[in-house]
Amino acid sequence: MTRHQQPDSAAATALARVRGQAPEIRANVRRLAAFANVHSCPTAAVAFAARIDTNRVLAGTSMEMPFGQSPFAIGRGVAFEALLRRHGHAELRRVLTLGLDTDFTFAAIENLREGYPPNRTGLRMRATVTQTRMAEIAGGPAEPVVLDGAVLEADIGGLPAFFEADEMAIGVGGQIIVGENKSWPVVDGKPTDEDALGAALDQAATYVLLGRHTLQRSGVDPSCMSDSVVLVTPRNTGLAPSLHRQDVASRIRRIQRLLSAVPDVQETAAATPASVTFGVVADTARPESVRLDAFRDVTDVLGRVYEPASCLTSCGFAWACRQRLFADADPAVVGGAVARALPGVASLSRVAELGQGAPASPVEAPAAVPVARAGRLYDELAAVPPDTQRRTA
Amino acid sequence: MSTALEAYFAARIYSEGQALRRTTLRHVHLADPPLAIAMWRLGGERFRAAAVAWGPLDGPFQLAVPGEPRNRDLYFAALEPFAIDLCARLRRAAVSKVARQRGSVTEHIPADALQLVVPNKSTVSALGLLGRYLAYLSDRGGVAPHPALIEAGKHLRFYARNARVPGQSLLIPLDRLVADHWATLLSPFEQANLAALDAQIEPPSGAHPFEASAAAEAAARIGPEPTEDVDRRTQALLADFNAARGASTDPAITEPLTGPLREHYRGLVEPVWQLMGRVVTRERHLPAAPSVHRRFESDREAFGRHVDWVVTQGGYYRTTDTPRQAAITLRRLEDTLARYEADQAVEDPAMMIPHLLDGDAIRGTVASLTETKVVVKVRAVARAVIAVDSPDPVTLPAGKLLWWTATASDQPWEVQSVQPNGAGSRVVMMLTAKPTAERLPVVGDVITLSTLCTGQTPFWLMPPEIAPWTHRPATPVPVPDPIDAGDSEQPAAPVDAAAAEDPGRYT
Amino acid sequence: MSIAHRIVDAIAAGDRDEALRLTRELDLVLTDTPVSADTAPSFTARPAVVPMTHPPAPARSARQVVAGALAEIGVACRAKVVTEYAEARFGQRVESRTLAALRRDERRAWEKSSARPTYIVPALEGRYFQPVRGLLTLSDWPLERRLLGPWSERADHLAATAQLARQLAWLSERDTAVAERLAPVVADMAASIPGALDGPGLDTARVEGAAQAELGPLTARDEPWRRDAAARARSQLPGEQQLWGATIGVVAEGDA
């Protein structure tokens, strides 16, 4: 079993150069799970590998996307965590005991966030400890164990990196179950926020995926890590916790597929010219037009892949990319499905002409015929003149 | 969805700078005026409305602001006027009834129903959760909550659940209404923002719809879930409010103190209210499709049953469906959706376009109409045969059943043959029923036939009363503990993102 | 037939007055509130030729101009024709120096595997699949359109001329400024086609007719040749070479 090599220093240098002075952010499992949604975009992959905080790069420009949460939501999350931890994790023990049918009264609850330097060395140390502890837990100690604050190593886009996890690893009878705490309530057995549930399950599935690789590196059977994860959430109003198990096997497979298809970041980074950097884009001292032009240039070199739903929920560059697509008259601005229906046609303006019956070239014809037909039918059947369509008076 | 049509829309909107209507008719009933509701929650608190605005959409809104919505007394005191008003309007709407004949049975259903409109689909689920909470309130310290709160909760739950029914018009999320009737450059995900939709349709003069909606996305605050900036302000005002009132929940003391919070939320609701009004007025301009009346009648029927059960009999609904109920509901929803899609396409030529593009429908000129004799069982019967010339190629197999839009609730035509005819096709079809005058088109007319029919759905067997063992949960569903058990807990202190170490982990 | 159905028929027939009358009737039945005249539906006949409005996009990059022009021409084409068409069509000039740099950049961009849907690639001759320097194609075209056989260059020239003539005819009704710029380009291309330029002025129908007439018999030979060549290329060449062409191995010094 090969140990992870040190990241290629040339790639690391290239990535640092691409990042420039742009704001940095720590990598963690949650962001990795979100990145999986946009994995095929080379800009997103490089930004992720270079640990660029895409939410902040465009701060002060009109392309800055709102992010951030209500203080009440954060406060609720903080309070929920505190509740679970109070008095030596009394509530956590209670809810795990009830939910997993095992006595957690004497379980060892370890937090790997405490006592390590908050830098790369600290991360590496935590990763080593995580690996050791997980192997021990899989060996089936007598008492259940909860491991919090783990750091997992993974190879994304050819580049190894450390990922901190919010999730817990719960060791019960030789099995490791991933547990996640979320402060949105579950009512009548159903979560009150489908989108948040999906994101939480994706996070947990990513943890399982990374955890299994960690186990493999220690020579332990990865199936020790369970396919079903645990969600600890409040029930009804208030913060009283309850536990729900959820199978995430298909999510694990999906995320594995996505992450293995990430473009090779080392090559991309190494091949970018020295002038290509996000530093200018993030430089709040420069005028907006210069910054946005720099964004266009950097992402032109790296390459952009835009899909509205994934990008708008996972990447802080989405508005800027969308603006770029509009300026380029790129059909992808309304989504991949439409763009894929138009092979051979160069731009939306050309599609508009074809829709009005412009003669199609041989390569445009397959896409043009249905669009021209749509245009004819619309003119024939939806005959409401444009100027009266919008009357509100 | 037809990608060719979507591509056409996107390209044309891009180059002409104008959004386009998808329909020539309105497919949903719009009351005049509907009762609009807009709400803002406290961030992360799924049961706590920090502000509820409501009222007939053609007038000013009333605003309920509890101050500290996590305090039960203040919360209920503020919601009571809303609940009382909602119940009163609902009961009023259910009072007058009309008779409806169904075979030999005469039923009485409400002549009208209270229609609610909200800015977006998230508000629908927010109201549903609020209803779940209010409908099952328990007594606290011997004090029973106002009965209007509980009744309003049941109503809200009913409306939110009923909102799943395709084509229903009792509770209309306006983002859905607009997206269904307009084509814009917004992807489905982006269409959840009503301000962005409205900006694409009516951008400020000179602006391209794309730019107008991007600006609207950046500026609009719609709710129910507050953004960080909205709640930072709420946090400051709420801290002042709580400090000023001490521990008092006496309305005489707390009411006057809610002023700043009321102003804060009034400023947020006002643009949303205007937006909703604009949107509804615009959509009301289109004439209603014929089947709107029938669907609204179903809505009124459901409304009447609900009012009967909840108001007259004081009943509750189960909090979760039994497997049998779930199966029936799912089947009903599927059937309703199929019927709704058929109605829209048959009644509205613009809605038929995706079907024409996808090959499920044909449109062309009737080239000939002849009668022939066919042997059915043992008798020879008259059958009509038409040939329709379509300018576009048709790829349907012989034997396919198609309904003429004018007789979509009646019997279909069966495809006999499809032959190339110039650039298009000639389709020969035979009517599968007696050729009476109303069933026959006129030679030379342009007609549309499709696989969609609006007749009665075939009778289907109801699932058995006792669910088979495969569909029974292993352990019986536990009785839910009181939804409001957590009301007495100390509310969590707000934490600003700047102060939290890793705020993203609390999503 | 119900009122509602009659409304739909009236709308379809463009009979405004009847539809209005029926709408009012139906509204009375449904809601007891009469429709007022100014909220009535409006109808038009099928719109006449809509003048083309120019989309809001600012100047495109040279790459976009070249790729857009190639897509509209649709066959392998000389760089000169592409840039002339582009200048007429989009009003943007692409210098030959720019074009040369563009071709280098395209190759480099592809090698870094940036995820563009299409690249500007050279046409390939159909026997040894060597890149043909002067002729441009797009990477998302099927291989058949990017390979050249003994008849292909002429066939492509004829097809391009016919396509541009059709474009010109369409544009003449909608954008006379562009049409005026495009006409000389078409005339140039038509110069070598017998019968295309007979008679006064530029008759796009005549140009198209003449081009198609000569193209017919050529295509009968060219298409099967291209299909065969494409089949061979697919079986012999890896993906990269199917786009950029095969490279004949350099024979080292001293090899036999």
Keyword list:
heterotrimer, A: 393 residues, alpha+beta, 3 domains, six-stranded mixed beta sheet, two-stranded antiparallel sheet, 10 strands, globular, disordered N terminus, B: 507 residues, Elongation Factor Tu (Ef-tu), domain 3, 2 domains, six-stranded antiparallel β-barrel, five-stranded mixed beta sheet, 13 helices
Write a structural description.
Chain A folds into 3 domains: 20-66 and 272-333, no CATH class; 71-259, no CATH class; 341-383, no CATH class. Chain A contains 17 helices and 10 strands. Chain A has helices at residues 9-19, 29-36, 42-49, 54-57, 71-100, 120-138, 194-217, 249-260, 265-271, 279-282, 288-302, 308-314, 318-327, 336-340, 348-355, 365-381, 386-389; strands at 108-111, 145-148, 151-156, 159-164, 168-172, 175-181, 186-187, 190-191, 228-234, 241-247. In chain A, strand 1 (108-111), helix 6 and strand 2 (145-148) form a beta-alpha-beta unit. In chain A, helix 7 packs across helix 8 (249-260). Residues 1-6 and 386-393 of chain A have low confidence and may be disordered. By secondary structure, chain B is α+β, with helices and mostly antiparallel strands. Chain B is 40% helix and 19% strand. The radius of gyration of chain B is 27 Å and the shape is globular. The N and C termini of chain C lie far apart (90 Å). In chain C, 57% of the residues lie in helices and 7% in strands. The relative contact order of chain C is 0.10. Chain C is globular. In chain C, a hairpin with a 5-residue loop joins strand 2 and strand 3 (131-138). Chain C has 2 domains: 3-39, no CATH class; 62-244, no CATH class. Mean pLDDT of chain C is 80; it is low at 31-54 and 250-256. Chain C has a 4-stranded mixed sheet. The chains are: A alpha+beta (393), B alpha+beta (507), C alpha+beta (256). Chains in contact: A-B, A-C, B-C. The interface between B and C is medium-sized, with 24 and 24 residues.
Question: Nutshell version of this structure?
Answer:
With 393 residues, chain A is an alpha+beta fold. Chain A has 17 helices and 10 strands. In chain A, the strands form 3 sheets. In chain A, strands 1-2-5-6-9-10 form a 6-stranded mixed sheet, with helices on both faces. Chain A has a two-stranded antiparallel ribbon with strand order 3-4.
